[in-house]
Amino acid sequence: MSTQASIPTVLQRLHQGTVDWLHSWWRLLHFAVVMFTLALLPSTYGHDKRPLLARHLVADTAPNLAWYGVLSALVSLVLIRIVVVTSQSYGLSRFALEMVVRVLVLELVPLTAAAFVALRTTLPAGLEFAQRRSAGTVTLAELHTEFFPRVAAGIFAVWMLAAVSCVLTLILAYLSLYGFTPWAMAGYTRVVGQVFNPAVTLILVLKIVFFSFAVGLIPMASSFYFGASYRNKVTHGLSDMVRLFAVMLFIEIASLMGNYY
């Protein structure tokens, strides 16, 4: 009897969990629509709001750009060296540059840039803002002054880090393979151009854009709906992190399918 009685309870919990899961994603979609609507309003960039928006953009991008640039350069040099040595040992040196571009520039750099901004900026900022924000209905002024600048700063930071890191990786790849000589530039640009065909370039741009949207929107969506109800910092922080990295994983899988299938 106890086993039979527990079956409805399990089904009820499964149903409630599914409803909560769908509700959370619906609220995220609603918050994204609100933010994109604000982004299209001229009043969002008014004279009184531009300094605050600019301050958030600089504060969330400049420190991350310095740290991530150094870390990205060091990791890129190590991985480039590994790829070059491995290619030479198997007699595949002519494919070394293409492997470096595909592995680092197309896959690792955008993913790590988005994860870096999320862990250092948007997830902590979203949780901190949610804990100190008063409960109740969010006003239009608060959307303009509190939510939109943080979302825009997270999106812009991912764009900037990914762009700078991609260019830096391409420069380091050239220097590691050919040294400080301009005579290999023609062959280098030909191989890189073959990798970055229109389809691959479009997929890379879309991946960075969707990564930035996930990093900028998901942490702030929680604070928009929950506000001061953030009683368990660990639980809600982990929930945002899991949701964010699940979306990033889905985007990465979709980009891999687009590039290689």
Automatic annotation (TrEMBL):
Annotated keywords: Membrane, Transmembrane, Transmembrane helix
Gene Ontology cellular component list: ATP-binding cassette (ABC) transporter complex
Superkingdom of origin: Bacteria
InterPro entries: Permease_MalE
UniProt entry tagged with the keyword Transport: no
Stretches that traverse the bilayer: 25-45, 65-87, 99-119, 151-178, 199-221, 241-260
UniProt-listed Pfam families: MlaE
Residues in coiled coil: none
Transmembrane is among the record's keywords: yes
Designated name of the protein: Phospholipid/cholesterol/gamma-HCH transport system permease protein
Organism (species): Duganella sacchari
